[in-house]
Specification:
Elements (H helix, E strand, L loop, with lengths): L9 E3 H4 L3 E4 L5 E11 L5 E7 L7 E5 L3 E4 L4 E3 L5 E3 L10 E3 H4 L3 E4 L4 E11 L5 E6 L3 E3 L5 E3 L3 E4 L4 E2 L8 H11 L4
Parallel strand pairs: 2-7, 10-15
Antiparallel strand pairs: 1-11, 2-3, 3-4, 3-9, 4-5, 5-8, 6-7, 10-11, 11-12, 12-13, 13-16, 14-15
């Protein structure tokens, strides 16, 4: 018997930033999720940074292949050894960007009208790709659909769907509208 496909799980970076990161294989606390490095071209995650505990902890890097789940209460990685010292140098990269440095980027139409500023992003639940841009103007954008992403701005043909109002009764209907815009996985 086949049922409906499983619901797609997208996670707000704003909701998971600062969550504890734990190794699944060894149960070791790695630190707190800090940032995501993405490829500008395909908006795929390349890696994550974690703030390690303690005075000498510093920043640690985790490749996306070691990321297993962005959860509600924890971020799960393969094991604690997946986090390697990354230092604090985070220079400008031609084809990649840190999400934390991208938040606040202007979103404009092709004719130059200001739509809003980028305030959050929604990632796949396994942490592999960025799927939705959330703007302060109460809109969500799906990159790749009438939308071009650059280091300093987001340029759109038209807006996709309004951001779900907090008091909306039909949450499922709104979510189906957003899911219909997303590329298949």
């Amino acid at each position: 018997m086949s049922g409906p496909p499983p619901a797609r799980r997208l996670v707000s970076l704003g909701a998971v930033r600062g969550l504890p990161v734990v190794g699944r294989a060894d149960g070791v606390y790695v630190g707190k999720l800090d940032d995501v490095l993405i490829s500008v071209e395909g908006l795929v995650a390349i890696g994550y940074t974690v703030r390690a505990p303690g005075f000498w902890g510093g920043r640690r890097g985790i490749e996306v292949a070691a990321m297993e789940r962005l959860g509600r209460d924890f971020v799960i990685v393969r094991d604690a050894d997946a986090a390697e010292p990354a230092g604090d140098a985070r220079g400008k990269l031609d084809d990649r960007l840190w999400i934390s440095e991208w938040l606040g980027a202007r979103c404009i139409t092709r004719r130059g009208a200001e739509v809003g500023k980028l305030v959050d992003v929604l990632l796949e639940g396994d942490g592999t790709a960025l799927r939705v841009l959330v703007l302060d103007g109460g809109r969500v954008l799906v990159p790749g659909r009438r939308c071009e992403v650059g280091r300093d701005s987001v340029v759109v043909e038209e807006l996709d769907v309004p951001l779900k109002p907090a008091d909306a009764a039909d949450t499922a209907g709104w979510w189906r509208e957003v899911e219909a815009l997303l590329p298949a996985v």
